[in-house]
Write a structure and sequence with these properties.
It contains 7 helices and 10 strands. It is α/β, with parallel strands linked by helices. Helix 1 packs across helix 2.
Length: 228
């Protein structure tokens, strides 16, 4: 069975997973969630000390749960006029079929219809290889279990966008956050929409300094964890 497309309250698409019966993005607003949690609280927080410098800086992003490609596309759009080069790695165990991807409305809803070709390219390029999609944005997609990630001190920011603890509890444990902690550079940041107490305590148990922050209008709290 293929994921089902649904329209969220901000007009942007999300997907409903046929087995887990859970959505890829918030039903209150897929783009709202992407902007608030991953771009503003994660990426721009990390880049805040770099924006405005004449020399281009680089930022390495890991997304756990590549899914629809919304966060990758949004990251590309939000940084195209900033002095930064983005090196993006998305990890996904179940790639979404292209027949579904081409029906998502992210280029239109992000006012980037002229970038629709790049959104499609994000999904059309081969997996397990690095691709330079623009002068400032490279992408690698890996179809793998995140537990097999062996990166050390590699990423500036992690978008932790896995399905929630009710659907995939094994992805919200100390075991997984130990892998995330090792993968981040010192002072690297992990952000996620999930503010569940058990998840927060699992992050803290492996060394993260965790802040519970106000969420977007549809959600009370989100988490930002910093590697000391």
């Amino acid at each position: 069975m293929k994921p089902k497309i649904e329209i969220t309250k901000d007009g942007s698409s999300t997907l409903l997973h046929p087995r887990y019966k859970t959505h890829y993005h918030s039903v209150f607003g897929a783009i709202e969630e992407s902007d608030f949690v991953y771009i503003n609280t994660g990426l721009l927080y990390v880049l805040s000390s770099q924006i405005g410098q004449e020399i281009k800086q680089s930022c390495s992003v890991l997304e756990v749960g590549f899914g629809s490609g919304l966060n990758a596309f949004n990251t590309l759009l939000k940084t195209e006029n900033l002095p930064v080069n983005i090196d993006y790695l998305g990890v996904e165990t179940e790639p979404v079929p292209l027949s579904i991807i081409k029906k998502l409305n992210y280029p239109e809803q992000l006012l980037a219809k002229h970038k629709a070709k790049i959104f499609n390219q994000i999904h059309e390029v081969s997996w397990q290889e690095k691709h330079q999609l623009t002068k400032q944005f490279s992408l690698e997609k890996r179809q793998q279990d995140i537990f097999s990630l062996t990166a050390t001190n590699q990423f500036d920011v992690v978008y932790f966008d896995a399905f929630g603890p009710d659907a995939q509890p094994e992805l919200w444990t100390a075991k997984i956050f130990k892998i995330m902690y090792a993968a981040l550079k010192p002072q690297g940041v992990l952000v996620t929409y999930c503010a569940q107490g058990n998840a927060r305590r699992a992050m803290q148990s492996v060394g993260f300094k965790v802040s519970r922050l106000p969420g977007p209008p549809s959600k009370r709290h989100i988490l930002r964890a910093v590697k000391d």
